[in-house]
């Protein structure tokens, strides 16, 4: 199917400028606004109405081995929005962006179409290294993360930031958990310190039975400044033909029913059999919505791993049968009324005890590196983009964490809103810490594995 032309979605765009260090990035970026998504209890809300994520993962070209920014590619983004609307989605997830690029055109167009963004703050070069998290948790890394927050915080359709993806991918590297949680804390603190609206921050966990729920408890335990705003899971357990019980989703729903913050599926859509998306009906049914706030199908474009809803060749987009199945599934899945069983209060969990599946002692977190703490006041300044030198081996005595942080010492206070607005190439690459490998080629995944890698399911 030929790509559609763009249909007058864009209003006049405001010019954006790069803020120098020390200057809050509060300039109006988006001329088209939507109601920002907020969190109450264990659910997301759009104004007073509960918001269910209906979305797809979006990283065209992720299988080429070259990282690109789909939000900065306005031509492709405007082309693809027409297909997003045909699917009936309200959210996209993007795994990597260039934090030096201008994103106004795409973000405005997405907002005009009523589509929100869930954004990973890591990139292949700037992320935690699960093989050595203490060295990779440094001010060089956090400067890139904070610069990405600066680039997207003023778009009202920025739904949430992901502080990491599948950093923990088995029972042997749960020692990374305090660093994942520290990054989540740091992003929350940066958002508050820089005067941005309160944008939800959370983590995307791997589909690992041994510790997925342990990580959920860990991300929601402790003081307000330590707790995540939400928890997301990558889940591929429903493989058509299946059912609510055969897939184990009944257990998922039960496990998270009394969880105190929103949960959603940051990736789903098994391809073991014909991909007809029968699970969509269950995901937006009250049997799940008491605990889950929807999810994101992996993935929009075919990157050579069988998960694509569309094929892209040059400027031409051709829909696959998966696209049609998902379109139909979304059309037939009606959101529950009366809040869908959500809880309106938020309760912290108890931190999990150390065990063979959980190699974390106590609830202390690494203190933010002093150079990174300075960004809370000065601002992060210009980011390194996708072509920077990288941060995973940039740790030094001057820019790493020294000691632990006292719980509650970095309490985040919500501030007034600013004026603006075969699972392979990515799905199964599991080598380098919090960045999702899915969007990238197997060549890159193998390379990453050799150097101790990045979590990119």
UniProtKB/TrEMBL annotation:
Keyword entries, A-Z: Glycoprotein, GPI-anchor, Lipoprotein, Membrane, Signal, Transferase, Transmembrane, Transmembrane helix
Q: Could you confirm whether the keyword Metal-binding appears in this record?
A: no
**UniProt KW Cell inner membrane keyword:** no
Comp. bias (Polar residues): 352-362
Name the segments for region: Disordered.
334-362, 384-426
Q: Where are the transmembrane segments?
A: 439-456
- Cellular location of this protein? Cell membrane
Q: List all Low complexity biased stretches.
A: 401-426
Please give the superkingdom of this protein's source: Eukaryota
The record's EC number reads 2.4.1.-
Instruction: Indicate how the chain sits in the lipid bilayer.
Output: Lipid-anchor; GPI-anchor
- MF GO annotations: 1,3-beta-glucanosyltransferase activity
Its principal location? Answer: membrane
Query: What's a Pfam family in this record?
Result: Glyco_hydro_72
Any one cellular-component term (Gene Ontology) = side of membrane
Question: PANTHER family given for it?
Answer: 1,3-BETA-GLUCANOSYLTRANSFERASE GAS1, 1,3-BETA-GLUCANOSYLTRANSFERASE GAS5
Q: What does this protein do?
A: Splits internally a 1,3-beta-glucan molecule and transfers the newly generated reducing end (the donor) to the non-reducing end of another 1,3-beta-glucan molecule (the acceptor) forming a 1,3-beta linkage, resulting in the elongation of 1,3-beta-glucan chains in the cell wall.
User: What protein name applies here?
Assistant: 1,3-beta-glucanosyltransferase
Q: Lineage of the source organism?
A: Eukaryota, Fungi, Dikarya, Ascomycota, Pezizomycotina
